[in-house]
Write a structure and sequence with these properties.
The chain has 315 residues and is α+β, with helices and mostly antiparallel strands. The protein has ten helices and 17 strands. It has an eleven-stranded mixed beta sheet. The longest helix has 17 residues.
């Protein structure tokens, strides 16, 4: 018989060890990452045991009578340790649903993990959601470059290597994030969208200190002037690198500096043996439309759309 418990701080070592050894876990699921914004969310993460052995975890938060696959994370879903068979996954899923029903919850919204982060490579959970009449409430196109398959990049992107000014480019991996945040990222987001980055400078520096191998900053300088930059989230377990933030100023745009930075980082992580470069989504309006220009940009870099789905289940 399965035992379901809610996560508490005494279980931190068990949780983190499980994520480290799982087939579809990423560094975003470690407690030190999930809890950087704990003041914004009521944690409701679930742990599934059988005879004191941890079988699965669900990073989640609760809002009144609703439970969400954690809203503070880019993706989520149920994390499994091994290549479980459908029967076992079904058993775990049913146990979670039974637990939630007893907790007087009305809806369960599950944001799934994109397949490129998933060594598990099982769609059993999607089937079980369908079987339980879950409603697909959002689908985003998440673009991935298959690094080890000679990605098809548009010739217009590669033309930059023929430009004479490239010799004045310098890409530097920085120890800090403040220069990029304060000189490029925040001002440009404020000007274009009247918005701030999801992570404050304090938060990104704290997270980078906790996960120095997973969060890195690369800035591009032209004649010693900062013109573009990119913050990478690097998933060592799954060999996926994600451009979490990337932006360029007006001078850099005229020089196609962001193109150059992307191409160089794509090359770098391909040579390091990574499988995919995650370019993020291009969707708007809750997924019902997409930004055509941004989609074309990511396709010209070699990106291929992979579904990032969100389901809602009535309890």
């Amino acid at each position: 018989m399965l035992e379901i418990i809610l996560y508490n701080s005494e279980k931190k070592t068990d949780w983190d060890t499980f994520i480290r050894n799982s087939k579809n876990g990423t560094f975003l699921f470690y407690r030190d990452f999930m809890e950087y914004h704990q003041n914004r969310f009521t944690d409701y993460s679930i742990m599934v045991y059988e005879k004191k052995k941890l079988l699965a975890v669900l990073p989640a938060n609760r809002v009144e009578d609703e439970i969400f696959s954690h809203q503070g994370l880019t993706y989520g879903g149920i994390v499994f340790k091994n290549f479980a068979k459908v029967k076992q996954i079904n058993k775990i899923f049913e146990a979670v649903l039974n637990f939630l029903n007893k907790e007087d919850l009305k809806t369960f919204t599950l944001k799934l993990l994109p397949s490129k982060y998933n060594h598990f490579q099982s769609s059993a959970l999607e089937y079980l959601l369908f079987q339980h009449r879950a409603k697909l409430i959002r689908r985003d196109m998440n673009f991935f470059i298959p690094l080890q398959r000679n990605p098809k990049q548009h010739k217009n992107k590669k033309k930059i290597y023929n430009k004479d000014f490239v010799k004045d480019f310098s890409i530097q991996q920085e120890n800090g994030f403040a220069v990029f945040w304060e000189k490029l990222l925040r001002p440009i987001l404020q000007e274009k969208y009247n918005a701030d980055p999801v992570h404050s400078i304090r938060e990104i520096e704290m997270l980078a200190a906790r996960f120095p191998e997973n969060i890195k900053q690369f800035n591009l300088y032209y004649k010693n002037k900062l013109v573009a930059g990119m913050t990478l989230f690097i998933e060592q377990q799954q060999k996926v690198v994600k451009s979490q933030y990337g932006t360029v100023n007006e001078e850099g745009k005229s020089l196609k500096a962001l193109d150059f930075l992307y191409l160089e980082l794509i090359k770098k992580y391909k040579e390091l043996g990574f499988n995919y470069f995650d370019l993020g989504i291009t969707n708007e309006a809750d997924g019902y439309s997409y930004n055509g220009g941004l989609t074309n940009y990511k396709e010209e870099l070699g990106g291929i759309p992979i579904s990032l789905d969100r389901y809602q289940l009535s309890l």
